[in-house]
Write a structure and sequence with these properties.
Number of helices: 13
Order of helices and strands: HHHEHEEEEHEHEHHHHHHH
Strand order of the largest sheet: 2-3-4-6-7
Length: about 300
Amino acid sequence: MTFEELKRIIYSCKGLSFIDASDRLQEIVFALNKADTLELISQIGAIPEYIGHDSKEEKLYTKVSDILLAKSMLEMNLDAKVLTKRADCADVVAQSHYHKYSLVGDAKAFRLSRTARNAKDYKVNSMALWRGDSEYSVLVCPYFQYPQSNSQIYKEALSGNVALFSWEYLYILLKEGIRESPSVNISDLWNQSYIISKSTTVSNSKKCFLLQQNQNITEFLKISPKKFYEYFNVVKNIIVKRGYNEIQYYEQEIERVAQLNREDAIAELLRTMKLDSKIATIKEFIDQINERELER
């Protein structure tokens, strides 16, 4: 399956209920072979710009990112599933068949036009809380969307032992054929923040530790740094190509809007501002207030 085919499937599901659409998408993704899984992993971290903000398509796209995270865990021979509950919990849970540990996971995808800069975009502290009785908590983001220098999220990850993983890491693990077995325990991958915290001083707790983590994972895989970054560059080049495609989409949008007449331009502006929706929401709130009886 190509990324383009995945986007078409997501749009074909928009007429279904969210639960039914999610079930269908999970059935399709879980049935993919490893090659198709790798193709989707390499691109899922970037939300296409033409998908509307807060649209059903966007919600389904982010659901697919959770499904792909679970699928990656399955490829590594963990027992993984996607949770249907949406609030105040992680979206993925996985358990080792052989080594008596479990983890919770959460997948993130961001638009290339909006670089994630705020700690709240990552929900690291929430991931620590959502771990519950599991041993590990794993956040999967696009690697290049993590802050490059000092950030609160690194301190939060170290103190809460939340693994700051990436789609690029998953791509490398699957390319290397990493799978748990009675003789292979991969839990150190999910324990990276704890491992790094043992050699991190309080004064350096906000410092980006991704380069150290890259080195640790390279050593875990027993591959050369050259091979590790060759894998990394495959995904990076795909994302760069996606970036140029997204720019082309906006350039075409600029041309389209420039050709609109006055009436159509006004209608377009009103649509993008979602004023009718905002008015409807306020009216609904007023109706609720009017219908509500105050205690006397």
